[in-house]
Amino acid sequence: MSTKSAHLFRISVEKIDGPADYAGTSAPLAFEVESHDDILAIVDRVRAGMAFTADEASALALGVKLLGGVVLTHRRDPLFADIQPALRGFIGNLKSRVASTASQGQWKESS
């Protein structure tokens, strides 16, 4: 259930090419995720601030945001003990790089 200050997103993954899976079908995957951040705005900033293709930057931003959300929600779970410090550092570095690129006026055109 969505809280007043949260954004609610539907994430969809659909196979568009490649061999069929073992059952001969590739049903799309869709799920909802709640975030205190606007994930689409984050994706836009990363796409604009990284020297990656638009698809790579989108996948990076979305993947990190989704992983970070699960890690934060389950921060006391021992499964995530090793990744928490590294993920915090990585996210900090990513934010710094995106901000640095933005402040230098080196916004990458989306492709």
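^ that was protein a. below is b, sequence first then the tokens
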Amino acid sequence: MHQLGDELMITDGTIYY
């Protein structure tokens, strides 16, 4: 469940910018 979007999304406890 790792998707990158325009906004930061928290996946698996990790913050993706």
